Amino acid sequence: MAVYGYEEEMGVKVKLISGRTVAQGQNLDNKLSDEYFNAVALCELSTEDMEKIGASPGDNVKVRTKYGEVVVKAKQGAGYPEGIVFIPMGPWANAVTSGDTRGAGMPQFKGIDAEIEKTDEPVLNIKELMMRYKEV
Amino acid sequence: MSELLIKNGVVYDPINGVKGEKKDICIRDGKVVEEVKNPKVIDAEGMVVMPGGVDIHAHIAGGKVNAGRLFRPEDGRRGLRPRTKVCMPESGYSVPNTFATGYRYARMGYTFVMEPAMPPLAARHTHEELIDIPILDNAAIPLIDNNWMTMEYVKSGDIDLLAAYIAWMIRATKGYGVKVVNPGGTEAWAWKKNCDLNDAVPYFDVTPAEIVRALAEANERFEMPHSIHVHGNMLGHPGNYEVTLKTYDLVKGITPYRDRPVMHATHTQFFSYGGTTWRDFESKARAIADYVNANEHVSIDIGSVIIGDTTTMTADGPMEYSLHQITGRKWTNHDVELETGSGITPFLYSGKVSVHTLQWAIGLELALLTKDPWKIALTSDHPNAGPFIGYPILISMLMSKRRRDESAKEMHSVIFDRAELPSIDREYSFYEIAIITRGMTARTLGLHEHGKGHLGVGADGDVAIYDISPEERDAGKIQKAFLNAKYTIKGGEIVVKDGEVVSAPPGRTFFVTPECESGLMDEMTAKLKEMFANYYSVSLANYPVQDAYVPNPYEIRAPWRS
Amino acid sequence: MQTIRLKLKEGVMSGVAKIPVIVDSLTPDKLSGKSEAEIKAVKVWWGNREENTGDLFEVSVEGEAGSAEEVKVVMEGDLTRVKYIGAGMKTGEIVANGDVDMHCGALMEGGKITVKGNADCWAGREMRGGELIIEGDAGANLCAMYRGETTGMTGGKVIVHGNAGECAGQYMAGGEILIKGNADILAGLNMKGGKITIEGDAIMPGADMTGGEILIKGKVEDMIPSFKFVETTTIEGEEYRKYTGDLAMTEKRAKGVLYVK
Amino acid sequence: MVEITDVVCPLCGCVCDDIVVEVEDNEVKKVRGACAVGKSKLMGHGRIKSPAIRANGVLKDCSYDEAIKKAAEILAAARRPLLYGWSSTVCEATKVGVELAVEIGAVIDNTASVCHGPSVLAIQDVGLPSCTLGEVKNRASLVIYWGANPTSAHGNHMKRYSYISKGYFLPGGKKDKKLVVVDVRETKTAKMADRFIQVEPGKDYLFFSALRAILYGHEDVVPDDVGGVAKKELLELADMMKETPFGIIFFGMGVTQSRGRHNNIINAIQVTRAAHTHTKFNIMPMRGHYNVTGFNQVCTWETGFPFAVDLSRGFAWYNPGETAANDILWRKECDAALFIASDPVSHFPADSIRHLARIPVIQIDPFANPTTEFADVVIPTAVSGVEAEGSVYRMDGIPLRLRKLVDTDYPSDEEVLMRILEEVRAIRAKEGE
Predict the structure, then answer these.
(1) Mutation target vs A (from D116, D124, D157, D184; most A CBs, 10 A cutoff)
(2) How, if at all, do strands B110-118 and B137-142 pair?
(3) Which of B141, B154, B396, B417 has its CA 20 to 30 A from that of B363?
(4) Contact assignment for A103 to C184 by CB distance below 8 Å
(5) CA angle B124, B126, B127 (to 5 degrees)
(6) Distance from the D160 Cα atom to the nearest Cα atom in chain B, whole angstroms
(7) Sign (positive/negative) of CA torsion B75, B76, B82, B83?
(8) Closest to B410 (Cα-Cα) out of B473, B353, B474, B366
(9) pTM of the entire predicted model
C-alpha cells in the first residue's frame, strides 16, 4: 500500500474527522452486512469541497493521509464548513489514521491532515479491506 | 468438623469482662465453644489475644471511594504489592483496592468493617465492592438525611411515614441503619450553598436540626441494632464545636429501643474546633469530652489524624469544595439526585502546619479525655484523617505518653499553646484498646448480639493474636505488633499467619430488615412512586438492590416497636 | 574505570511480537561490585516472566571500578523495546547505542545517560538529578510526571538534540531542559519551576504554567490566549516578547514566564 | 406475548431503564421507548452459530470445550497477552477478566482507551465536578454539548436527562432551559441549540483557556479571535455560564479524539471549575457503550487503576500511552490477544491491527464482525441485556442491572471466561508438577 510522504501533490487539503452516526450505531452488531457498508464506507463533505474535487454525491473519493489511503463514496454533508470532511467511525476511517498514541493511549481520530480527490477506483468491501491488512 | 484451640494467650475480651487473663479459646465450625476435642492448636504463650477488630466507620467501598482510587493513580502506585498464591495484587495507600483493603485489615487483626456512607441510588455499587473485599464481614449504612422524601416528611412532621420511608430505603439498599451527612447542607450544595444547623434548606423549608431530631425519632420506631450515625453540620469549620454540642442536644430525651445511645456522632475530631478562623483555631476536645462524659445518649468515634498524604472523601460536598479551594489540588464532586452528594480531594496532613498539628492533637485528646472508653471508638474516618493502615500508630500514641511527647516535639509549636494534649498523662491499657477497637464498636452497632466483637461462647470465631507481651509499653513494638498480627482467625479459619495472608475467604454482608406496618408503607409508597415517575432518572422497579448483590447475607430483623 | 557491555541478543527481538525487556536492575550502582557471572544472574523482566540478564544479553566486563561512580554501562543491540534504561540510577554512566524505549532515565538521581539515537516517551520522567543526553528525538512526556502526580522533573539537566514530543516538561518543578529541535504541543504544561529552552518551533507552549521559564527561539504556533504581555526584552542579543501566565490558572498562581520572538 | 416493562437498554452510556419490550416465542418482537439505535440492538441481528477454530486460514466449527481449551493454551503460553474490550458486557464478566489477567500476567484494557480514556487521564489531573443525570434533569437551566452529538450517538439523552426533560425546578422543560452546542460542524444537535459556536478543528484547547481567563476576570488579555471564535462570542458564553444557577457541560469524542486529547478535557474541566467560582457548574463525559464505565469501575476497585493495566509483573502498572491496547498493538508488543464484547479491527487504526494478522487472536462475542476475520478462536456468547443479566454502570456512574428477556443456549461471557480461567489454571498446575 502506498504511503503518502508529501512528495507528490494530490487533491484538496482538508481536515478529516470521524464519529458516530445513527446508521453506524444501528449496525454495530451487523458489521458484515451491506447496511453497515452503506452506513460507514462514505465521506461527508461540504458543497464547496465537493465542487473543488469535481465530484457529485455517489462518486468515489480517495482520502489520503500520512498513514494511508482509502476510497469511499462521497456524500453531501449538511453543516460542514469548507475544509472539513467526515467519515463515520469504522474500518474505512481507520484505514487512514495512525495507531501511534504519542504517550496518551488514544490515537488521534479527529482533525487529521488529509487530501481528497475524485477517483474511479472502487470502494473496497469489508473483506477486501481486511485482506489488505493481512498482506502487509 | 473443624476445631481450633488457642491456648495460653492473654485474653482481652471486654464485652465478657475478660481483662487480660490467661485463657484458652476454643472454636468449632466457626463459632466459639466451651471445649474442643481434637483441635488444631495455636500456642499463644506470652501473646495478646483479642476478638477480631470491628471498625465502626471506614470508607472502604462504593462510588466515592472508587472515584478516589480512579483519580489518584499516584496513590495507587504507593501501595503496589504483587500477587501471591492466595492474594490478588495490592495497590494504593489511602485508597487501596478492594483486595488490599481486606488483606490489610486482616493483617491488623480486624474482621468486621462498617462502610458508613452508601448513596442509596448507587447502593448496588457499594455492594459490588463489598463482595470483592476478601475476609472482612461488612455492612453499609445508607444516607437518608438529604433525601427529598425525608425532608418532606420532616416538614409535615409525620414521623411514622418517615419511619416507613426509612424502612423501605434500608431494605431497598440492603443497608444497616440511618446515616446523616451534613443534613440539609448537601441538598443546598446542589445550588452551591451550605446550611448551618438552624438555616432553612433552600426550597424545602426545613432545618438541619429538624431533620436530625426527626430521623432519630423515626429510627427508634424500630428495634434497630444501631442508632442514627451522624456527621453533622459545619464539619471542619473553626468554631464548630458549639454546633456539635447543639446537635448532640437535639436528640437528648429520645428513648432508645435498647441500652445504647440515640446518636453515634462520627469522626468527632473534625467537629471539635474552637476559634473563629484558621488563625485563632484551637482545640475544643475538652468541651466535647465533658459533654460525652456527662451524657449517655451520644457515642463518638475519634477520626484521628495520621500525619501524611491522604484522600479526603465525604457526602459533605461543600466541605470538600472548601478544602479544594484551600489546597488547589484536584477535586471531584458527585451530587446524587434527590438524595445526597459527595466530594473528594487529596490532602496532606503536615506536622509543620499549625492547623494540622492541632487536628492531630484533637483526635487523641478526645480519646484521652473521654473517661469511659465504652463511649468512644478508634477511627481515622478512613481515609479522611488518614488511612486505616495507620491505626497501629494511633494505638501506640494512646498507649504511650512518651511517644506523644516525642511526636509533639517534632510538630508545630502551636501544640503547646492551643492544645491540651501535652499535659495529658493518661495511657490506654491493652484492655482499653480492646474496648475502643472491638467491644464498644460491636456493642454500639448492635453486632455483639450477632457474634461480633467478643469471644464468649456462641460468638464468631474471629480472633486476633498479637505477638507482644501484655507488659510491653514500648510504642514502637506496640505499633509493629498491631500492624501485623501473629495470627488472625476469621470464622475459625486462619487467614493471617506471621503477618501474611494465608487464606482469603469471602466476607459476609450484614443488613437490617426493618419491619413496618403495611398501611404506613402503602401511604409512603404512593408518594415514592410519584417521586420516581417525575424526578428520578431511574425507574422504581430497577432501584432496589437485587439479592445477587449480597451473595453472603446475614439478615437482622428490626421489628416495629408498638 | 570499568565498562560493562550489555548487548541484547538478536533472538530477543526477532519474533513476531517485540516483547519489552525491563532493565531498571541494570544501572551502574546496582551492577557495581558484581562479577560477570553475577551480572548474568541479575533478573530482568521480559514480558510476564523474569529472566537472567545473561539469557537476554551478551555480557562482558572490562576493567575495575573502585566505586559505582567509575562504572560505565554500554547497551547495544536493538533497544527499541528495552524500557527503563538507567531508571532510578544514582551515579556512574550509561551509554545506549541506538534508539531506546520508554522511561529511559526515569526517576534518575545522578550520573549520566547518553542515548545515541531516539528515546521513546517518558524519558527523564520525574528525574531528580544527573544528566540525560538524547542525541536524536525524544518522545512525548519528556521529563514529565507520572499520571496523577503534580511534580515532574525536579533537578538535573536534559539535552535533546532533535525534536521533543507532546507535553515536554509537564509539571516540571526544577532543573533544565534544552530542546535543540522543535517541541510538539503543550511543552511546559503545568510547569512550576526550572527552565525549558526550545531552539526550534513550539505549539501552545506554557499552558497552565504557574512558575518557571520557557524560552522559544523559533516560531510559536497557537499561542495560549490567556498569557499577559509584559514587555519586550533582549536575551543574548535577540529581541523577545515576555509574557507571564497562565492567567487561566488565576492571577495569584500565574507566575510562569514565557519568552517568545 | 409477554410484555416486559422497565427493561434496561444495553446500547449506549444512557442506559435507559424504562424500555418496554414485547416477547413472543422467545424472541423480542417489539420495542417501545428506546432510540433507533437501542431498538436495533434489542431486536437483534444475525449471530455466530458455533464456536470455531481457524485451521489453514479457515474457521472451522468446533465444540465449546475445544474452543475454550485452545484459547486457554494460547493464553497460558503467551509472554505478553492482551485482553481487550469489555464495554458491551457486564461487570460480572469483567471481574473474571481481571482474575484471568492476573493469572496469566496480561495487559487488560477496555474500549475507553479509544473513547473516554483521555477523560480519565484528565480526571486524574484535575478531578471531575459532576453529578447524576437526574440532577441535570431537575436543575440544569444551561446545557452545553461540547464536541458531542447526542442526536446521533445518545438518542434519548436530551429527552430523558437534559435539554428536553422536565424537572422539579424546571417544570417547563426546554422552555426553562438554554442549549449551547460547541462543535467543528453544525450537527443535528447544533441545529436545535439556542446558540451554536463553531470552533476550528484542533483549537478547542485555546478556546477553553480563553474562557477560563474570562471567567477569572482577565478578559483583557484574550485576543479578538480564539480558534476561529470571536472574543464577543466567548464573552457572551461566559456570561451565560455565570448567570445560570446550575449549568452542565456534556463533552464527547469531538474533544477527546482531537489534537490535545486528554489535555482538552483537563482544560474543559478547568473551565467548569472556573465557572464554579460563580455558580454551580458540572461536567460529564458522554460515555459511549452501555458498560464502558462499568469496566473502569470494576478495574479500579480490583486493581486500583481504571483501564490499560499491565499485570505482567504480578502487580498493577498503569500507564496509558504505554499499556493501552493501541500502544501494545501499534508497537507490536503482544504475542496473543483476547477480544471480548468489542470490535477493535473496526475501531482501531489500520497500523494497529496489522499486528493481529500475525499473532493468535481469540474472540468472544455474540456477533461476527471484522475482528472475526482475524480470530483464530471464536467463541459465541449470549447477548448481555437480552439473554443474560448483570451489572452495568451508566455514564454518570449509576449502577443498574441488565435484565434477561429471552432464554438462550449460548453461555454467558462470564461463564466462558470462567471456563478459560479454570483451563489455564489446570495447564499451570500441570506445568508445576
Answers:
(1) D184
(2) parallel
(3) B141
(4) no
(5) 65
(6) 7
(7) positive
(8) B353
(9) 0.97
Task: Residue D273: name the closest of C254, B321, B64, B71 by CA.
Answer: B321
CB contact under 8 Å between C22 and D313, yes or no, is yes
**How long a stretch of residues is chain B?**
562
> Is residue D130 classed as helix, strand or coil in its secondary structure?
strand
Fold of domain B3-51+458-501: Urease, subunit C; domain 1 (2.30.40)
ipTM (interface pTM): 0.96
- Answer CATH for A12-135 from 3.90.1010.10, 2.40.40.20, 3.30.930.10, 3.20.20.150: 2.40.40.20
CA separation for the pair B187, B178 (Å, rounded): 17
Q: In what order do the strands lie in the sheet with D2-7?
A: D2-7, D19-24, D27-32
Phi, psi at B459, each rounded to 5°: -70, 160
Backbone angles phi and psi of D112, in degrees to 5 = -55, -30
Q: Where are the alpha helices (DSSP H) in C93-132?
A: none
CB of A107 within 8 Å of a chain D CB? The answer is yes
Please give the residue of chain A at the shortest CA–CA distance from C165: A102
Assigned C-alpha cell, B179: 446515616
Mean pLDDT of D4-33: 96
Question: How many distinct helices (H) and strands (E) make up chain C?
Answer: 3, 19
pLDDT in tens, D175-206: 999 999 999 989 999 999 999 999 998 899 99
The residue in chain D having the minimum alpha-carbon distance to the alpha carbon of residue C149 is D125
Residue of C nearest to D126 (CA): C148
Give the pLDDT mean for C45-60.
Answer: 98
| pLDDT over 70, % of chain B | 100
* Beta strands, E only, chain C: 2-8, 21-22, 43-46, 49-52, 57-63, 71-76, 82-83, 93-96, 112-115, 131-134, 157-160, 176-179, 192-198, 202-203, 211-216, 220-221, 228-235, 238-245, 256-260
**Which residue among D79, D124, D208 sits closest to C48, beta carbon to beta carbon?**
D79
Q: Over the Cα atoms of chain B, what is R_g?
A: 22
Tell me which of D240, D266, D285 is where a domain ends.
Answer: D285
The interface residues of chain B toward chain D in range 75-104, judged by CB-CB distance below 8 A, are 76-77, 79-83, 88-92, 95-100
Report which secondary-structure segment, H or E, holds A132: helix A126-135
Indicate if the pLDDT at residue D433 is higher than 70. no
What percent of chain D is predicted at pLDDT more than 70? 100
Q: Do chains D and B touch (3 or more CB pairs under 8 A)?
A: yes
CATH architecture of B53-450: Alpha-Beta Barrel (3.20)
Question: Residues D53, D147: one domain?
Answer: no
Single-letter code of the amino acid located at C222 = D
Average pLDDT of span D1-17: 96
* Placement of cell 539535552 in the chain: C159
B451-462 mean pLDDT: 98
Task: Confirm or reject contact between A94 and chain D (CB < 8 A).
Answer: yes
Tell me the H-state helices in D216-324: 231-243, 253-256, 262-276, 292-303
Average pLDDT, chain C: 97
- pLDDT at residue B527, rounded to an integer: 97
CATH number of the structural domain spanning residue D304: 3.40.50.740
The 10 Å Cβ neighbour count of residue B406 is 11
User: What grid cell was written down for B347?
Assistant: 490532602
Helix (H) or strand (E) holding B131: helix B123-131
- Residue C135 in grid coordinates: 542525541
- Please list, in sequence order, all residues whose beta carbon lies within 8 angstroms of the beta carbon of residue D250, skipping any fewer than 6 positions away: D143, D144, D145, D146, D148, D150, D157, D162, D283, D284, D285, D286
Chain C CB contacts of A102 under 8 Å are: 121, 139-140, 165-166, 184
